[in-house]
UniProtKB/TrEMBL annotation:
Keyword Cell membrane: no
Pfam families, sorted: SBP_bac_3
InterPro entries listed in its UniProt record: Solute-binding_3/MltF_N
Keywords from the named record: Signal
Protein name according to UniProt: ABC transporter substrate-binding protein
Gene3D superfamilies with a match to the protein in the record: Periplasmic binding protein-like II (3.40.190.10)
Signal peptide: 1-18
Native organism: Corynebacterium phocae
Residue span(s) of domain Solute-binding protein family 3/N-terminal: 52-277
Amino acid sequence: MKKLSLIAPLLLALSLSACVTNEEPAVPEGWQEINVDTVPEIAAMVEDTDGTLTVGTSPPFAPFELKDSDGNIVGVEMDLVRALSQVMGLDFKPVEQDFSLILPSISGNQVDAGASGFTDTEERRENYDFVDILYAGIQWAQKPGDSIDPDNPCGLTIAVQRTTVSETDDVRPKAEKCLAEGKEPITVLSFDSSDNAALALLTTRADALSADSPVTAWAVNRSGGEMELTGEIFDAAPYGIAVPKDSALGPATAAALQHLIDTGVYAQILAQWGITEGLVDEAMINERPINV
């Protein structure tokens, strides 16, 4: 009986990890790969020597990017960037990287662009342009039945993915505020992936999870009832595909996105991954419409 009491929690942890990792089908039920034709006038805008759009990405960050059972990188951003590449007459090649290295890799010409749930912020715009693809905010999750208030987190342990806005703009500033006000400190658990951050909540290492709203919703939906949303979505901001500052790739990618919006393919791709809110009505670079 003592052995069983030790094994049961381990099996539970393993079964819960399957809810937010790749032991179950990576793509949603009914998913189909969407292919589109090249648009010659948009392809003519592209300055590319090898005919391939090489894109840095950091799975797992479901539903934006994750790996299937064969090790292929899939996700809504991968589907969208593949379609954008096709419109521009380019092959698509995702390159797995640590999230913190993607933007420097663009600067170093190691990849052409970055697609990994990047929030389009004023700070990042100083060195990169962002073709905005979606509006999303920060959303917290908790264990069912808890009463965690994201506005009053002092004394809690919060799981986040390292270097995301949930860490840098949400939890870290709140932790500093708790200390400044003489309240119980926040313990911040930073992980290399959103999956591991969610797993920390599932296994009760953390009291709550802070992540981008589509990421939190995906984790909750796949947790088998072991997680629930808490609080409202806040700090809504655009997600964007990162490209070199003032490069020809920005306008070309934005024109390709506008084509996907006009033809309905953009909404179709996002809907396959359960994203029906926060869609952009027109293509933008750094939140500015491309026809301005």
